[in-house]
Amino acid sequence: MRFLKTLGYVLALPLILVAIWWVSTLGETNFFVPTPALLAEAFAETWLGDRILSDVLPSIGRLVVGVSSAIIFGIVTGLLIGSVKWLRDLTEPVLEFFRAIPPPVLVPVLMLLMGISDSMKVVVIISGCIWPVLLNTIEGVRAIDGVLSDSAHTYGIQGWARVKYLVLPSAGPQIMAGIRQCLSIGLILMVISEMFASSSGLGFAIVQFQRSFAIPEMWSGIVILGLIGVAMSFIFQWTERRVLRWYHGLREVENAI
Amino acid sequence: MQSETTPAPAGKTLPGNEAMLSVRNMKKVYKTDGGDIEAVRNLTFDLKAGELACLVGPSGSGKTTLLKCIAGLMAPTEGEVLLDGVKVSGPPKKMAVVFQEYGRSLFPWMRVRENVELPLKNQGVPKAERDRLVDDALEAVGLAHVPQSYPWQLSGGMQQRVAIARAVAYQPEVLLMDEPFAAVDAQTRADLEDLIRTVWRKLGVTVLFVTHDIDESVYLGERVIILSSSPTVIQEDLTIDLPDERDQLNTRSLPRFTELRHHVYEQIQLAKAGHRPTAAAQAGH
Amino acid sequence: MQSETTPAPAGKTLPGNEAMLSVRNMKKVYKTDGGDIEAVRNLTFDLKAGELACLVGPSGSGKTTLLKCIAGLMAPTEGEVLLDGVKVSGPPKKMAVVFQEYGRSLFPWMRVRENVELPLKNQGVPKAERDRLVDDALEAVGLAHVPQSYPWQLSGGMQQRVAIARAVAYQPEVLLMDEPFAAVDAQTRADLEDLIRTVWRKLGVTVLFVTHDIDESVYLGERVIILSSSPTVIQEDLTIDLPDERDQLNTRSLPRFTELRHHVYEQIQLAKAGHRPTAAAQAGH
Amino acid sequence: MQPLTPIFDRHSDRPLADEKSSGPLPLPRSFPGGEKPRPGKMRRSKKQLPGLAGIIGFLLLWELIPRVGVVEPRFLPPASEVIAALITDFSLTAFWVAVGETMLAWAIGLMMAIVLAVVLGFITGSSMVLRKFTNSTVEFLRPIPSVALIPLAVLLFGVKIESTLMLVVYASFWQVFIQVLYGVADVDNVAMQTAKSYGLGTMARVRHVVFPTALPYLMTGIRLAASVALILAITAELVIGSPGLGREIALAQSGGAISGMYALVLATGLIGVVINLVMRFIERKTLSWHSSIRSEAIV
Amino acid sequence: GTSPAAKTAGEGGLTPIKVGVITITDAAAAYVGVDQGFFEEEGLKAELVPAQGGAAIVPLVVSGGADFGFSNVTSLIIGRSKGLPLQIVSAGNATTGIEGKDFADVLVKDDSGIEDAGDLVHKKIAVNTLNNISDTTVRAAIEAAGADGSNVTFVEMPFPDMRAALAKGNVDAVATVEPFRSMILEDKTHSAVSNYAAPLTDLMVTAYFTSEQMAAQKPEVVEAFKRAMSKSLKYSDEHPDAVRKILPEFTAMDDDLVNRIVLPRFPSQVNRDSVNEVAELALKNGLIDKLPDMEKFVP
Ligand SMILES: Nc1ncnc2c1ncn2[C@@H]1O[C@H](COP(=O)(O)OP(=O)(O)OP(=O)(O)O)[C@@H](O)[C@H]1O
Ligand SMILES: Nc1ncnc2c1ncn2[C@@H]1O[C@H](COP(=O)(O)OP(=O)(O)OP(=O)(O)O)[C@@H](O)[C@H]1O
Ligand SMILES: O=C([O-])O
Ligand SMILES: [Mg+2]
Ligand SMILES: [Mg+2]
After folding, report:
1. Is the pLDDT confidence value at C280 over 70?
2. Model's pTM, two decimal places?
């Protein structure tokens, strides 16, 4: 019963949207906007074969490596920068500088420094999706309640213990917001990283389809991206409910009316 | 550096190295965008090791400010705080603080037991001893039945008792408590008062105890330090000459108890009315 | 649905439409991942319009829970709360609540004055009247000098007084207060007690006042409702037959005052000790 | 014939009068009115010092990498060369026209994204049902790269600013939206109950309780979105070819003007730094009550 | 959508048209034509809309956002075979047909040991677009040299990045065009094969196109455009100096580079045989499933 309800929530809006799309593409045909049937057909033809192995899986592999490195690196640096005021003052302008550089101009530089390799693509992914984690961690660390921080301080909880028992849990909700952003940006950058110096991958395939006017196939690739996004996000939300159990409990009790 | 209308107000001081805790000419000014706020003007007093002193004073007189300076959480604007002769510049070791904002001082992501256990764990106290200390403390504050609850699942008074249990289990050398019984009922309060005295006697801990309850200050303390209203100086530093053995029924019905509480009450009323002590009006009465 | 060992505990009820506030067989169970917690088992009592009742009970006995149910912030698990004969299903109009967690109930992004002003502004009270009400309320709680401070720039007691000022300025018909004086000093407390009685008499507001201070409950209330320990029933519903005109010195020295406070004290001790009332043991003493 | 603004023609430089001395991108003043006494100014400029040190350190590193031969200078010119090229750019009208185009797309796009995301975020965030109902769709749409939408954008709007705007809005919307969702969920129970019990209606609660609570999250979202919007504005110009810094970068690349290209990239990064300074300034004003700001004020 | 060109004649009775172009040497003839007034002579007021390649230009033309577009022939063949109603109306540019003196080359390092197309087997070659004209012609050249054309690795890389990639050894060869060809030749490199000149005869690399809809609705505008382009191409082919003069106006090449590069030919007639040949090559390489209907594609 609860499962059905959840399923209803997950599927209701997508079904409505597909229905709207279906109705609105009934009459005319636009080359760049395929009908649902055409898209479904293209999807089955394109992806339900060895492309899963040759294009999708390697991409997901790079994505996972990139996103997890970004999360870890973002949290660690964020903790440092968030807790040490002078470090924040020192690094903020440089970080802001890099944050504003578009990946398409960053990639050639990375290619210069690292050559054409998987690790270059992973670095592209990291370079883009680390920011939400980093910024949210910094802000989360800065927002720690003063009384709580004082309590930890007086009981001699410092260094790693402070991070583990105070800083991470307290900044947790905000860090989670950052991670959630990080996942989808990582996916976007996976596509962008495969637009340069590559010859396979999901992003590469989408760009190829776009260039060769295989429009239904291109959209079907985008659908795959969306589905990966949904899958990652569900895994993430499941994890989050557990990691932040106290938080959701704290916020949701007493909301009976 | 004293203005002439407010003579140097001072509590009891001790010679040389007898003092455990020394507050010397402490002044605290808060800087805000609306201008400076002089919360504490000048405080000087000593606490000797193992002393139990109560601190009373009107609301907003700087009790919390003073405690935070002693705990090394804030730097005084002028003057200094010495602990065992060493200037306090950060939270000292083996000091426990029960904050007035008890609700915000508990870690909402930890269960009650974990909250109490954390400082001990952090100190590397072995598991067995830690368990014993935590169990005893929770038992003592009457919370042995909720170790697995989160703080936000508890009532206000229960939260406050968790904070007290945490401080007691920590077995500190110096214990600072900021209105620790404000949220508990009369009976529990009496029990907790006795708990503090027991702990104090057993461990020989130095206690500075902020309270608004005048009876409580007299019942608990060996000394009651009365603060003037802000900008704060010491209104009076009163020795409580009641017998060392105290109990709720007998001690409170002693005539001397009534005398003392009357005296404290008067002094607080004076303080609230803005009366400030003269340099001469120091020491016991 | 009563278990046989705990007979229907009930406070005073009124016939038909005389009651302003009716609590009927209220039960509250908190669902947690560690199992259900039965905070309140069964409460029934009425308050007539313009009555001032105090609520006392051991820490964790469900006073805050009860207040939140009355304020329509939580739904009782069983039973109901009626206000003017209408079932409460959301926060009713013209009700003001002073929360036990005063610190968290003030908006940190608003200055003191804005905090007090907000409910009035929200009601569309004209500027001039609003200013007058806010000024009066801040004056009454002794905070006329800090309207431009943020709550977190105030001491604990000052924050609590801001919350009181907000409730008083709102001019509610029903006023619920959850240990509103816990953080203020004795003298301020006395002043605020008199303030509440003045406001109550002037506006004819119905007040339910939670306190841990037994003297306070007797001094303030026309009635003291004593709760048992959790799972909660009513231990006793006591009428305070003191003269209507009360003042801090005289009222508190009346022999009847001492009698009443002793009685309340005993009942709370019983409640704490786990004693539960029998069905017969109702009404005045 | 429309002015074909190529990479601002280096042959017909039309220096803007006093552009350099007046400072092309004035740093925001950190205090209103500027009537604060000198010490305030001193403190502020002292506060910027470490940041300046960080920048200088970065530039030194950049200078060194090509100089010691990690990469060849003709592919990654040393910082000094690029800065020189950038300073030349500063005196060209066409550069400022391109910056203007990009900043226009950035500002309009970011504004639209913020307004949309705030409105939809607050509506969605305040209702459990709505949040569950839209969850899967939101998660599906978020990872769709703006660049994949280029044909659709061109189809709808042609090679005009609207195309760039669509991509900018699409990409930066999600940054703000998700932050708002989390911010709305962060409301303190006691604060919310206080508002309810004093009869504040839904709108009043959103305004007085939910919004201030979500504000720190929102500010982070806006800071994220601000740079994503800048990135997308430039990428769209780069890929679609609509006018602005991105097209200038593409032109510089295709003309082999490596220093010129990096000068533009440097300019992009500097715009990012300036945007952040402005954001920090706004944050100090709007979040002065928040523990992240006030704890620093006290220490 | 209906183009405004037919209805609204601008001042002087000129019909405004929009032409989506890429700002590269290949499209120079259109700029020369506008400069020389050939479009006005035919009653057209041409606005050249710079865009960044097929991804933007094709939807632009199909949606009526531009009346004509410029693209490489292979892309048009692919689009046509996927069902896009594209029609070639004019030649764009063509190979010089002279090995080693064409505007496109596969360049390799001098010390690579690669001397001709046959040596490219097993190598990694950068092309700017995979599955398009470059890789198919390179493969054809390798096969023409008697080697196995399926045994090379192509990687996609924007032209501007190829020089560094080759120098760093990230790739073994780069299939490049002017002006990058001339820049890369400054390093110690040489041509392994001129991939546009060698394998096919008289290759027409790019073309101007329109949509069938436009061709049906405003045949007179299309005819006028054809005539104007024909004149422009002829003039450009005969006056390389005029081409070199105009290049700095829409690319970022400096004078020195402009004078060094090899210009393509600008044939005034569409070479249908070449289109056929390219289409067959595309079919062979699996870029398309069936040959386009030449009658409709190149009427
Ligand atoms: N962060 C702050 N910024 C500005 N002023 C402050 C700050 N904290 C405290 N104050 C001011 O300092 C004075 C003393 O405050 P403090 O909290 O020490 O009083 P207190 O004696 O603990 O009062 P209470 O009994 O009400 O808790 C008050 O006037 C208060 O407004
Ligand atoms: N959110 C919650 N989740 C689970 N249990 C709760 C929650 N809130 C309160 N309780 C439990 O309900 C009981 C009554 O709590 P309540 O806060 O009403 O007590 P109280 O009478 O106000 O106590 P105090 O005087 O200490 O404030 C307690 O046992 C408490 O642990
Ligand atoms: O949406 C982006 O393509 O970054
Ligand atoms: Mg205090
Ligand atoms: Mg309570």
Report:
1. no
2. 0.85
